[in-house]
Amino acid sequence: MSVDNDDLAALRQRIDGIDDQILELVSERARLAEEVARAKARRGEALKVYRPEREAEILRRLTEHNRGPLTREQVTVLFREVMSACRALQQPLTVAFLGPQGTFTEEAASKHFGHDAGMSPQATIGGVFREVESGAAHYGVVPVENSSEGVVSHTLDRFLDSELAIVGEVELRIHHALASHAGGLTSIDRVYSHQQGLSQCRAWLETHLPQAERHPVSSTAEAARLAALEPSAAAIASEAAAERYGVPLLQERIEDYHGNTTRFLVLGYQSPPPSGHDKTSLVVSSANRSGLLFQLLEPLARNGIDMTRIESRPARQRGVWEYVFFIDILGHAEDESLRGPLAEMRERASLFRILGSYPRAI
Predict the structure, then answer these.
(1) 245-291, pLDDT tens digit by residue?
(2) Mean pLDDT on 114-119
(3) Which CATH number does the domain 177-251 belong to among 2.60.120.620, 3.40.120.10, 1.10.287.130, 3.40.190.10?
(4) Are 178 and 212 in contact (CB under 8 A)?
(5) What value does the CA radius of gyration of the chain take, rounded to a whole number of Å?
(6) How do beta strands 278-285 and 323-330 pair?
(7) Residue 131 φ/ψ, nearest 5 degrees
(8) Which end of the chain is more exposed for a tag (fewer CB within 10 A), N or C?
């Protein structure tokens, strides 16, 4: 059905009116956020503007009530930005991330904290930990695992030496693009990317660029920077990184698995209270003996606790061929259903540490 000019003008007028209402309501929300900060100051409470469990509850409630046509993801993005702006009025947050600018980790940090958080790029995963440990950043974001390439071992190893806790998680769908100033694929003689990017696009490279040398670099953003300087080079990077360094896209979505997803952890000093949809991360170990892993995990199985991930890493400060196990389970450490099983695991382990209980990724 066609819409005449009068009808179109009326629709636009209604949209203008709704926009005015949205602005007033968002402004009222911001004023209330400022009042919360003042109320805490009057009561002598420490100002804590980032409440992972509270934000998770808000987003789940809104997405459950969403009747469309906006998708669940669109509603989440919209309200994360509203919460980010309101947080910034109370206290600006600084978030350290694995840089440089243009990495997928920066994208994950912005997805979780919104664009009103101050972003502080760090050259290494260890650098992100140190920024938070020193107080130079309020929180940090680091990658921990990819759905097609597995665990990021540097992140797990760093937890063995740090007192930081996991306070949140982010899941980001990873889409790789090929960017280059070369006129076509046949003109490309080398491809830069992070090792994970090269691995996640291995089959595509073998099919379309078998002649090109592959050069791993520190990040996909660094790959884009290098490709910007070399006419015959290409980068496997995000579209954002290619745009940031002015490198034209030759091919989009070249990852071998289109469900390719990376999970990131949010680092802080104190795990949040239960949100009702939580995950708990543990690190456990014991002296190497027959049936060790079964004995450590048996309390979880007996009590019907869902385990979503287990990874083993060499116990660097223990004996040769001894290992520590990183385990993720569903639920919060304060949940009644988890207290007993976790206490049993603690009794059976020589090393037992709860790395954090936090809301599951939305």
Answers:
(1) 999 999 999 999 988 899 999 999 989 999 999 999 999 998 777 77
(2) 96
(3) 3.40.190.10
(4) no
(5) 24
(6) antiparallel
(7) -60, -40
(8) N
